[in-house]
């Protein structure tokens, strides 16, 4: 698999690319791939960027084994070892303007950005746009972002190689999983929902109870293995779970960013050696943790995105001696946000999950045990968990499919869908009482103040644009108007072209009945669009 990825990277550079994205599931050797690919004479200086010290430490160990004679430096916290062939820098340190300006733009021949799904953030973009390497490599196991940001745009739209969890399990590089979807007894309808997440204090009070902890303990004892990570929703939740498990005779600790946390590095080592049984974590081990011995993952919290769910699953998928499979214990509650977990499962097996209809199909196949899974994998939902999901997938009498999709998309991504995304989900964006997409978005409260002002002022025009059949002359007119009126970055460079095209439409009424020929007497010769110009649209 790595050989294939290396060949793909080589071909990308031969094709003229100076950047590329490689998607490799956790455990398939992203760091090794970067170390081997950058070990070329033309790449004298290499910069490796990550957002956690643990990732930097692991990367240094890997690169040292590939390039034992290279000078290695670190730039993180108070450490400034910048005079090096291989520099490993934290984005928090390197991203500061006073630190970044110390480097020349061409100081590094090869730059690696690990966990590239973070790269759309401002700090990352500032660093990526500052340097001019011979090659930029983005690495991630989870290319999708919850906010819908386009990561490929940062890599010249060049996805070089992609191998997901299914590929890893099939090849034997990752271990199979046995997934258990179990019912969550919490009534989430009583917990206030704030935009895209539950009210933190109310959620804390609901999850940190003896009854729920007892249920988690029973689930672990009946299904789990010997080394477990439990993902919690808060520091209080993690501390509570650790105390409860300790009181039951298990060796458990809580690891988080608070003062009551057990030592992070020490706890991981103790888990690996079997000195402790369970680590309860809060957003600490989603990324950059390499403990192959982990054989159980407990998902004890609502999950905001498929990215987080995949990251948590990936913590236990590494192959280890005497480890036949990973056990996943996942709580399913009575709130639509828990459909995210079913959606993540669908994505894991390469199934469409954009609409509730797709999810119903996946759930039914799981229930009938006809779902296609990677070799050695099993998915089991408790009957009560199936009932919960079926209730969530059943549209209410007052909620249309369009409204359901809109709300679900908004909660998953933190922004509203556009008409194209709605159409690709198999839903007509104009299937609403308003008769127009923008009218529907306005009713759902999705237009900003300025957008709404413009829409209401020219509502008839926008509605006409939606409903007008564009099978006659409009396409070429629109293209010419765009080329005449927009500059290279898509901004209007003239205030006169709308009036000019209005004049052409008024003078040339043949557009109402004739296709393209009528425009040949009005369009200048520049309207002959080249393939290059069309490709830029």
How does this structure look, described?
It is a single chain. The chain is α/β, with parallel strands linked by helices and 537 residues long. The protein has 4 domains: 2-163, P-loop containing nucleotide triphosphate hydrolases (Rossmann fold, 3-Layer(aba) Sandwich); 172-393, 3-Layer(aba) Sandwich (Rossmann fold); 401-466, no CATH class; 474-535, no CATH class. Helices cover 41% and strands 14% of the residues. The chain contains 23 helices and 17 strands. It has helices at residues 2-14, 30-37, 53-66, 91-94, 97-100, 122-130, 165-171, 200-207, 210-223, 235-247, 264-273, 306-314, 339-348, 356-368, 383-393, 401-413, 419-424, 437-443, 449-457, 459-467, 474-485, 497-507, 531-535, and strands at residues 19-24, 46-50, 72-76, 79-80, 86-90, 110-113, 135-140, 159-163, 177-183, 193-194, 197-198, 228-231, 252-255, 278-281, 296-299, 326-332, 378-381. The strands form 3 sheets. It has an 8-stranded mixed beta sheet. It has a 7-stranded parallel beta sheet with strand order 13-14-12-15-16-9-17, with helices on both faces. It has a two-stranded antiparallel ribbon with strand order 10-11. Helix 2 crosses helix 3 (53-66), helix 9 (210-223) packs across helix 10 and helix 12 packs across helix 13 (339-348). The longest helix is centred in the N-terminal third of the chain and has 14 residues, at 53-66. It is globular. The two termini are 35 Å apart. The model is unreliable at 514-537 (pLDDT under 50).
């Amino acid at each position: 698999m790595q050989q294939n990825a290396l060949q793909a990277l080589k071909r990308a550079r031969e094709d003229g690319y100076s950047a590329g994205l490689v998607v490799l599931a956790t455990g398939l050797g992203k760091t090794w791939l970067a170390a081997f690919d950058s070990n070329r004479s033309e790449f004298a200086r290499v910069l490796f960027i990550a957002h956690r010290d643990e990732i930097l430490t692991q990367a240094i160990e890997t690169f040292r084994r590939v390039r034992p004679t290279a000078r290695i430096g670190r730039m993180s916290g108070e450490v400034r070892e910048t005079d090096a062939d291989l520099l490993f820098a934290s984005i928090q340190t390197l991203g500061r303007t006073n630190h970044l300006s110390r480097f020349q733009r061409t100081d590094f021949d090869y730059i690696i950005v690990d966990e590239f799904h973070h790269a759309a953030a401002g700090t990352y973009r500032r660093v990526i746009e500052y340097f001019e390497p011979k090659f930029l490599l983005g690495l991630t196991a989870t290319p999708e972002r919850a906010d819908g940001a386009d990561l490929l745009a940062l890599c010249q739209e060049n996805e070089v190689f992609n191998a997901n969890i299914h590929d890893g399990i099939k090849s034997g590089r990752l271990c199979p999983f046995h997934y258990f979807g179990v019912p969550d007894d919490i009534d989430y309808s009583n917990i206030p929902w704030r935009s895209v997440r539950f009210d933190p204090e109310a959620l804390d009070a609901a999850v940190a109870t003896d009854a729920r902890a007892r249920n988690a303990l029973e689930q672990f004892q009946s299904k789990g293995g010997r080394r477990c990570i439990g993902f919690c929703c808060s520091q209080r939740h993690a501390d509570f779970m650790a105390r409860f498990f300790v009181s039951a005779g298990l060796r458990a600790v809580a690891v988080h960013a608070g003062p009551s946390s057990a030592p992070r590095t020490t706890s991981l080592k103790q888990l690996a050696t079997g000195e402790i049984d369970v680590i309860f974590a809060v957003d600490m081990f989603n990324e950059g943790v390499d403990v192959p011995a982990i054989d159980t993952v407990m998902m004890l919290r609502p999950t905001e995105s498929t990215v987080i769910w995949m990251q948590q699953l990936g913590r236990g998928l590494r192959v280890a001696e005497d480890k036949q499979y990973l056990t996943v214990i996942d709580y399913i509650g009575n709130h639509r946000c828990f459909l995210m977990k079913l959606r993540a499962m669908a994505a894991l097996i390469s199934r469409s999950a954009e609409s509730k209809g797709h999810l119903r199909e996946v759930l039914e196949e799981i229930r009938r045990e006809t779902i296609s899974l990677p070799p050695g994998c099993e998915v089991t939902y408790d009957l009560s968990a199936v009932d919960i999901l079926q209730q969530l997938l059943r549209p209410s009498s007052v909620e249309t499919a369009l409204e359901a999709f809109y709300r679900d998309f908004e909660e998953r991504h933190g922004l509203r869908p556009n008409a194209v995304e709605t159409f690709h989900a198999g839903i007509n964006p104009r299937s609403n009482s308003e008769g127009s997409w923008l009218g529907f978005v306005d009713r759902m409260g999705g237009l900003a103040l300025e957008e709404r002002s413009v829409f209401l002022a020219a509502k008839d025009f926008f509605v006409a644009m939606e409903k007008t059949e564009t099978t006659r002359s409009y396409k070429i007119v629109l293209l010419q108007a765009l080329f005449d009126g927009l500059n290279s970055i898509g901004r209007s460079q003239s205030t006169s072209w709308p009036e000019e095209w209005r004049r052409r439409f008024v003078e040339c009424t043949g557009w109402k009945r004739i296709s393209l020929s009528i425009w040949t007497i009005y369009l200048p010769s520049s309207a002959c669009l080249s393939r290059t110009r069309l490709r830029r649209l």
